[in-house]
Amino acid sequence: MNKPETTTHAGQAPTLRMHYLALLTPLILTHALQSAGGLIDGFWLGHLLGARGIATAASFFPVFFLLLSLIIGLGAGATILAGQAWGARDAAQVRQVGATAFLAALGIGLAISAAGAWSAPWLMRALGTPPDILPEAIRYTRAMLLVMPFVFVTWTGLSLSRGTGDALSPMWALLVATLVGAVCTPLLVASTPLGAAGVAGSVLVAQLAGLMVLIRRWRRGGHPLAQGAGWQDWKPSATVALRMLHIGLPAALQMLAMALAETVLLGLVNRHGSDATAAYGAATQVLSWVQFPAMSLGIAAAIFSAHAVGAGRRERVPSIVRTGLRSNAVVTTLFVIAVHLLAPFALRLFLESGAVLEQAVAIVRTIAWSVVLLGWSNVLVSALRASGAALIPPLLSIAAIVAVELPVAVALDARFGLAGVFWACPIAFLAMLMLHGLYYRYKENKKDGFFH
């Protein structure tokens, strides 16, 4: 795992770039594996069940995004607190953060699973799911909600590991999970009465396999989070929970706002029929590939900034941000170009040639280029969050979503139809970047020395 940085100022820039590259590579591969799992599931749903299978999974996506926002917020808090403890070289604090985060993840996951399973019919109807896929969508939603506790616990483990600079263990864990899912999904979808809901069984087995690999690597590497290491420190803390809530709740609110936007967008798409829903579902699978470098750079910026804060070296945060912004301009742009060119071929994994495929290609090419803007925002927000500014950046994101993306999507849908809906995403990402950039500059120039 990566140690807290101890570079000198004179060699700071090149050394920091190397640290970014060392952490960014496994982070990108990890997100690639996550996307590969979704692609494999989508491939089998599309080829075994047709466009109806893709549309069924797409109908659940806003619900999944909504619920997962809670654990993403918790994961953000766990990553930063574990990173700060690691930067201070306090292994006992790392274990206390881990105990608190795992307990919270399990409790939230169980509560959501129990509450969500019975509400699946209402959720699917509220989203305006097309009638021809409504029964399948309800079964799929119920099954996925029942396995959420396992997803939440595994996600938390990955977040904690990354917070200590160990990005390799999550990568190997997700590699195993992806391979297990690749085997289980076609068996459960095609060979059992579950149909599309068989994906949930595959997710369960894959998540358990990934979690076992993560724990095994912790034990072999003598990681502070390994079972048996400093067992007396493995106890949840109310103080840590409050700090985690202070960091994670704003992040969760931002994700909830994004889930709201996804829900509204899906509602607009559903008005155009199940073919449009299928095109949207396939496009989101491909777009995830261009998003993971932007997401990885945000995580890397959060980890390095947390390490610097924990080590008492806040003055390093601006340098970390500048390196992250430059890296995003290169890395994410390369992914955007690749996705733009390869979209027609990648989408054929899910869809047959025809109007649905053409719609999906148009969606991908409309949104993909704007992910570069999202990557810059992620770097700024992550560094601010790790430095103590946890509330304002998410509120700015929510303002961009509520005041820009949603009304623009509704207006463009009324004016241009389905094609106009997705132009709201680039416009919203640009608004977010402007707001975050102005706030970061304000904090950087404060007289009380926010980063010093």
Span of the ends, CA to CA: 27 Å
Write the H/E string, N to C: HHHHHHHHHHHHHHHH
Mean pLDDT: 84
Give the DSSP E fraction (strand runs of 2 or more residues): under 5%
For the largest beta-sheet, the strand count, sense and barrel status come to: none
Low-confidence stretches: 5-13
- Structural class, from helix and strand content? mainly alpha
Q: If helices are DSSP runs of H or I spanning 4 or more residues, what is the number of helices?
A: 16
Q: How many beta-strand elements?
A: 0
Computed over alpha carbons, the radius of gyration is 21 Å
Helix content: over 70%
Identify the overall geometry: globular
Report on the structure:
- The chain has 16 helices and no strands.
- It is an all-alpha fold.
- It is globular and about 55 Å long.
- The chain starts with 11 loop residues before the first helix and ends in an 8-residue tail after the last helix.
- About 2% of the residues have low confidence.
